[in-house]
Amino acid sequence: MNFGRGPSVVLNVGGTRYSFSREVLKDFPLRRVSRLHGCLSEQDVLEVCDDYDRERNEYFFDRHSEAFGFIMLYVRHGHLRFVPHMCELSFYNEMIYWGLEGSHLDYCCQRRLDDRMSETYTYYSAEEPPGEAASGPEGKGRRPPGAEGGKWLERMRRTFEEPTSSVAAQVLATVSILFVIVSMVVLCASTLPEWRAPENRSMEEQSRYTAESVREPSGIIEAICIGWFTAECIVRFIVSKNKCEFVRRPLNIIDLLAITPYYISVLMTVFTGENSQLQRAGVTLRVLRMMRIFWVIKLARHFIGLQTLGLTLKRCYREMVMLLVFICVAMAIFSALSQLLENGLDLGTKNKDYASIPAACWWVIISMTTVGYGDMCPITVPGRILGGICVVSGIVLLALPITFIYHSFVQCYHELKFRSARYSRSLSAEFLN
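Below the sequence we write its predicted structure tokens.
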């Protein structure tokens, strides 16, 4: 420490004094306290603490003394827990002040903090939606130049991105959902024998986008749905703030995957001709047409449940990878053992279903997930014992990461519910006005 005198310093936190040597402050676990070691003047000290007594070399912090006592227990013993009968958010505020983060808390307290923050966000969403202060009486009459255009673009963005932001957004979302449902019904019905083209037309001819197929009812419905989705995607791209970020979003990529096959198929018909070798093959076009199933994922824009699922998978990719590693390791072990017990020992009871380790992997995965199709099963006593162990181990391995994934799912649900409630209030205000 380059400021102050004496071999030791005194920290006064809310009336409770703590005495430390100067060398201890240099590597102190609390960032705010360790900053005192590099202070060169009294002005630098007052930027860190609230007051300073030069005579006693005492630094005063106007903070919660009991909370700092629990933080000092973390410095000494390495365990940080909440103060009993103290609000979790208030204690978290003290932690942030002294330079700690939520990850320093013990796991049980981290769960309490996450739950408390989620509840608080949901509560605030019904009381203080963002932008309310700006639209209040103080904000009127002080709009900068170009604010009207920016406000219109923001309104358009909310209309297309947030189904609960306005009445127009709800109408648009309803129409989009109807188009998705109609397109999926037509796609499923087109595979029925009663809906197919006459028998004199081959499968390859049915898969082509010819002039006659476009005039059919299913072709007209498909063209209308594609036109709606294309127009919606173009408008959302135009009104987006960041065009590069718009292209990188997963839902927008899915929109492109669902829309482009139709135009590719039409262009292939136009440029290669209706009777070309590529058209007669028909496989490529059938694959492209079947990619319309991605339209179902478009419903994630309008339902919190699907959004929560996607956000949870994004945040829990480490846990998902860990789960896959567990399954792959267990699959390698049990498939090798089952192949050895059922087929490799050759004790007169050879099971042809377990002729190879890759074939045994199928039995392992359906056993670990407790599906049990029954298409292949062990017939030897050691094989059946191994099958029982495989089932029990599958239940245990699959259950281990579920706690982390569930906790993240609940947190993601609260965050999305908060955002939805925020826009729902603006929708109610608009409806009443």
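Residues 162-302 form a domain with the Four Helix Bundle (Hemerythrin (Met), subunit A) fold (CATH 1.20.120.350).
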